[in-house]
Specification:
about 180 residues, mainly alpha, 2 strands
Length: about 180
């Protein structure tokens, strides 16, 4: 009897082990109740997420408008200086350039503060929505006796996708009956 080379025997054993584990995993997976939640969709479509976005817009729109207006004034001043520069005395031109540089520095500082404040508030609002969504997901998990609910997946079929159920619960609608 001829013996197969070692690499062929190892590959055959690995293939056989893979087949056995896949069939066992398939049997186990059929017994498990698995759910999937598309977090991005929840944060985009749920009423609490939309309300948080509206709060942020209301809170920061005035400052954003002020920054835009300040930027427009600064640009207009720079254009005016460029246009009038050749006719101005050297000392006057230098003074106005210093003022523009100082105004630009102040505007950049205000923009950074605005972005930092906006980022902090977005994170606070997002955290509140995520915590609420997680409570809803846990409630669905317990009520419907799921074995696992995933929030990150490369692919998930519609059979396990419970995103709509989570959104409805967050919006205050009673969740649909379990499948």
């Amino acid at each position: 009897m001829k013996t197969l080379p070692l690499t062929t025997r190892v590959l055959a054993a690995a293939a056989w082990a893979a087949v056995l584990s896949l069939s066992a995993a398939g049997a186990i997976a059929q017994e498990l109740k698995i759910g999937y939640v598309n977090s991005e969709r929840v944060l985009r479509e749920a009423a609490p997420a939309k309300a948080a976005q509206a709060r942020l817009e209301g809170e920061f729109s005035k400052r954003e408008k002020e920054l835009s207006e300040q930027g427009a004034r600064l640009k207009a001043s720079a254009e005016r200086l460029e246009k009038e520069g050749p006719t101005l005395a050297e000392s006057e031109r230098a003074r106005r350039q210093r003022e523009l540089v100082e105004q630009d520095r102040e505007m950049q500082r205000r923009r950074r503060e605005f972005q930092e404040d906006l980022t902090q508030r977005k994170n606070e609002e997002l955290q509140a929505v995520v915590e609420r969504a997680n409570r809803v997901i846990k409630q669905i998990f317990e009520q419907e006796k799921y074995d696992v609910i995933l929030q990150e997946a490369i692919f998930a079929g519609p059979r396990v996708d419970i995103t709509e159920k989570v959104i409805k619960a967050l919006n205050g609608a009673p969740p649909a009956a379990p499948r």
